[in-house]
Amino acid sequence: MRLVKIRHDGETHWGMLEGEKVKLIEGTPYSGIAFTGEVIAFDETKLEAPCDATKVIAIGKNYYDHAVEMGGQAPEKPIIFMKPTTSIIPHLGGIEYPSISNRVDYECELAFVIKKTARHVKAAHAAEYILGYTCLNDVTARDLQQLDGQWIRAKGFDTFCPIGPVLTDEVDPAAGLKVQTFLNGEMKQDSTTDKLMWPVAELLEFITACMTLHPGDVVTTGTPAGIGPMQKGDEVAVVVEGIGKLVNRIV
Asked: What is the extent of the structural domain holding 117?
């Protein structure tokens, strides 16, 4: 299935995307999907980020080549941090360039959305807790990250977490999905999800050993090598194979 969260006639709905049509569902998709019977043309909708997050949990240095390019060794355990929900924007939303930063970077990532309350989840059961996968851009004020030492401010600005365009359960990260960034049409990052040092199931076990994840929460799995700066007016696209293209412009 390919789920979308949309705005239509001033209201927000979840729906299933089938071709150029959106079949609306009752309520949210976390406890099961029931259709309302209403069908809307996709081009008459505006996409929202496909989640209902109380938090976004992100993973640092989960690709070996990115850990190296950041000037360090691969970590011995996953590095987790959080992005505030106020940083979330949808496909085609504008990424605001902060006046207090001189370098704002793209970071393409595979993310997943939690289906049901998750606490002390074992890796073997992780799939039961995942509603689907999507694209995420972990936008980062790199100069502030280096200045602060910790990452919350640098990665937590409003608009610094584009997510979308769709949410799907039709992909398998273990199969090695392509994860790419294009800046103004030029490819800047190019890797595959089978290179994650800690795959999705292990990440979910590690995270839920210390905190509860709620339905609609987002976990993003880390970025590969090739990070780089963006400027006002640039168009950045995060592409994950089998999911789609998340496009945003820097404003």
From this structure: 56-250
